[in-house]
Records
---
Amino acid sequence: MRARRVSETAYLYDEPGPRARRRIRIASAVSVLVLAGLLALALVQFGSRGQLDADRWTPFLSWPIWEYLLVGLRGTLLAAAVVAVLGGVLGVLLALGRLSPVRPLRVLCTGFIEVFRTLPVLLLIYLMLFGLPAYGINLPVLWKLVVPLTIANAAAFAEIVRAGVLSLPRGQSEAGASLGMRRLQVMRAVVLPQALRAVTPSLVVQLVSLLKDTSLGYVVAYTELLYRAQVLSSYNRLLIQTFLVVTLVYLVVNGALSALASRMRRRTTRTAAPVAAAVPPQQGAPAPTVEAPRG
Amino acid sequence: MSALIDSWPALLAGLGTTVLVLVTSAVGALVLGVLVTVARVSPVPVLRAAAFGYVQVLVNVPLLALLLLAVFALPDAGLIAPLTVTAIIVLTVYEAAYVAEALRSGINTVPRGQVEASRALGFTLAQTLRLVVVPQAARAVVQPLGNVLIALLMNTALAATVGVVELTSAVNKVNLVQAQPIPIFGAAGLVYMALALVIGLGAGRIEKKVAIRR
């Protein structure tokens, strides 16, 4: 794992000689000192306000607090799962619509995707919370979070799926058509299975972003991790500790998902170019996938 | 419609704050992102590990959690700044990780053979980067960076949750008074789309301008 990460950009430099090695050692020492200095500065600042005292941290060793937070995590995962399923299905449908030969459908789906890819989710949530009740639409609290997130993530999923469909060689759908399959049959049986497999890593990355978005449950007062943290910290007055712990929980859950995505990506690039890591490639490294990061 | 006309000063002030937050944190994130990328491709293992950790942490943590931490919790440790400044700093730090990711994938688009060729010609690392890698990577990175900036625009709305009165927050306040959600939120949506369009078109234009014709 570590060796691979080092070798990722190691081709930029020659094997360091004695002088370069000494320079690297000096630079390492200096950067360790600077980083350690920054950390020390932060710890001194925290310590001087008594934020490092043991009694401010020991509550997080007790089960009831974790139980309280884990209920929040369950809410986060539930909301994320609902959004992933609904948004995934809607996203595939939107992608198909955008690729459809039927013009009105295509225009409609393109418009939907482009609009909701550039609207802040919070705006949709405020509309849900404060706007729609005026028209008599007042959903349960889970759906006030899930509906805006589904709309926004469906647009993102649709673009990923569409990229996958477009990346597939044309011969695939032509072969399907020449076998006498209908367009939708070709889509369902030939194109989509391959396209979805190709974009699975990007879909997992989007899942991470979606899971982060569920923290907006804080705004609609839906019982998820961040909302629970807020309630908890208003009881125990341990603001820094509570939010740091919750941040760590997010980091663990999402870090696992991200690691899964990069492992998948590495596997797909490896099957595409079997001599990637071990043998120095002759010319033109395996084309790395450039995806648009969205945060 | 009259609701919009009646309250245009508040909406305009909100838009001004959104643009201010967007521009300052965009500049900050670009600078910090470049620094992180430099550390990430440097031959110094410590710097590389630190940059990797930075990106991993910030890509996996919700922005809202960071905002709440900075605005409500850090004052307990004596770290306190004006609200809008805090929001700008958090957005900068958060979005820099995405800038760094975009830049790194740009560097990865430069074929390895190019670097090996320049090393074979006896270029130093600095020369290789300046003359071979960066000119090509910079061109590949325009569109991804545009997407990062659009994401940043959408993320500026989150500052509303901690009390910064930017466009989303201003619109919400106007709606609470006027109670005409559809035109008011619709107008805000159009403004966000227009801003995103400007960023997207700008990125497309720059990309076309710097493209190399072979």
Note: The CA atoms of residues 22 and 281 of chain A lie 30 Å apart.
---
Amino acid sequence: MKHLLSTADLSKDDAILLLDTAAQMAATQSREIKKLPTLRGRTVVNLFFEDSTRTRISFETAAKRLSADVINFSAKGSSVSKGESLKDTALTLHAMGADAVVVRHHASGAPHMLANAGWLDAAVLNAGDGMHQHPTQALLDAFTIRRHLVGERSGADPVGADLAGLRVAIVGDVLHSRVARSNVHLLHTLGAEVTLVAPPTLLPVGVESWPSRVSYHLDETLEQWQPDAVMMLRVQRERMSGGAGAFFPSPQEYSRTFGLNARRLALAPDHALVMHPGPMNRGLEISADAADHARSVIVEQVANGVAVRMAALYLLLAGGDDSERNTQ
Amino acid sequence: MSTTYILRGVRPLGGDPVDVVLADGVISEITAAGEATVPDASHGVTAPGEATVPDGDVVVLDARASDGSGLVLLPGLVDLHTHLREPGREDAETVWSGTRAAAAGGFTAVHAMANTTPVADTAGVVEQVRRLGEEAGWADVHPVGAVTVGLAGERLAELGAMADSAARVRVFSDDGRCVHDPILMRRALEYVKAFDGVVAQHAQEPRLTEGAQMNEGVVSGEIGLTGWPAVAEEAIIARDVLLAEHVGSRLHVCHLSTARSVEIIRWAKSRGVNVTAEVTPHHLILTDELARDYDPVFKVNPPLRTAEDVEAVRQGLADGTIDIVATDHAPHPVEDKDCEWSAAAFGMTGLETALSVVQATMVDTGRLTWADVARVLSTAPARIGRIDDRQGRPLAAGEPANLVLVDPAAHRMIDGSAQVTASANTPFRGMELPGRVVATFLRGRATVLDGVPVDALEGAAR
């Protein structure tokens, strides 16, 4: 692994290695001294072209816990017509000697360009690109699911385990969601089954070729398919204010049909997890009684995000050579 | 006195070898192979490419194709859809560099699209482009006039003034934008009847394509780029052929790209609608799978479609539903393509690769003959542009010597930086394509010899 661009690039072994490494990282985070010396002297640049305080802080925390030097570079709205190009930014980072670049960009494929255009030779970690991918989000979701559902069920440490046989419903704006795309690929690779639940307007053309089922009905999916985890996607408020081009008639109708609340949750199995990548629109895609439910792991997802990002940085920057990998 | 060229053993439209003599701007004689006599060799016979060719010489061109057979002789190619970028974007292309690239690709006439800065929506701008073309001298430049003022789609430009100008505009297009307002499109179709003009429509329903980046389908869904649905093209074409039928006007559909667009044109023609259609070389060979690496060299409008669409446009071209191939040559400077996909410009160069792509996809596959190639790349576009009194003429004595000599047995590796056009954005770079333009003649004057624009030869000889 030179870069982490898309969960579609991850083999099952890669994915499990990432989750197992994250488990080791998580174990270190309960110690009094959380910092590890692993990446001392290495430079990690957080290159954020889009606002995302949560993801940036999570990556920054992960890099600092591994003793890397962290540089935050936020460049909103960069494009050829508006100031410095992506290429010039990349050349600048290259000249500064960045070892890893964590990139969040509004354009799908921008991390792919950074990794492959020959502009810089740092490891590139995709922290979310347009409507394409957000691989560390999917990894932290899988990590969270594995901890709760594989670990608990077998009563053993889930290290080395996949998610075979588990069912995950992903609910909401699949069309615009990089979280959904990343999760569909990763969960499939790990052996889980996925059902996408959304109004037809919020599903992409071609979704039938994805390794997942599709349903237009949340109640039916919860009751009849019995998912082990229900992952709610954020709905952008601007998606419903587009006049004739709005994707659904009103927030109320969306909430009535696709919003998760305690009543709906009762249709799912008792052990089903409630998940959300955040930030939540309480009252729209998820009600307070679902978000704060005993089965909600939303806050834990955030904590796990740091461990997963530590694992990704570690494997890309320090775990690349085979001798080290073989000793694990 | 102009140079006389004797083309020995060439094969008109791929047929049997003959000798063809070009003198005083016309085809003066066609004889059996080896029988054309060199009139007066006192000035010395010069092999092409050897030295400068002073006026008055007799040049015997006895070049052979790579397999030893005669070169294929075609009427000079005519492009109905070229972006020359001047005035306004001379960093991408100029009339001089674009027509020089056209000559290198075998073209003797190009129609220069109206989306320049300023827009070619007045007699003044079209006359300027026309004059720049005459000064450059590489190929005839026929400006396309904008349908609406500033391409804004709000009110008709002065179509009559452009038609009556020295540029004699007959093709009108807002290319790059669609004339989407139905009443405006109806008026334009009706109005140009007065001077036998044609509206060339860029079929793209704007509301269905807001923010669109690539073909809407499996690939766009996976890689997260906003889709440009096929129906946005098809809906406009369907409306326009019905409008053209209703008002009895002539319609040309630019760069159609989908299987159902071909079906709609086929249906319209079966009803007798006066419609013609074009396909680009890139839509004959490339698919949306190429977007997966986010390389903006493959970003184009209309977008690259699926393999099924590619097969449908090939079939449409083979059975005559699609009348012509036009390049949509769209040069862009490096910085407009060396960036993230959504920030990149739409378009790809095409003048120097068009004939090779048509050979690869249609001739070498047995779907078109060389005579058909002459039809789809020369005679039919000349007729649609109403320049068929000068271009796209038969290969016969007395006809204007607008010609191209092709070596179909040659193969060449495409390299963007080696192109004659001022821009390098070819989607075929790194591909090996068949066929090579050996020589191009514009009214008897060689613009290209040995595959190289003639000014370059002169420079090398100095």
Note: Chain B is about 25% helix and 20% strand.
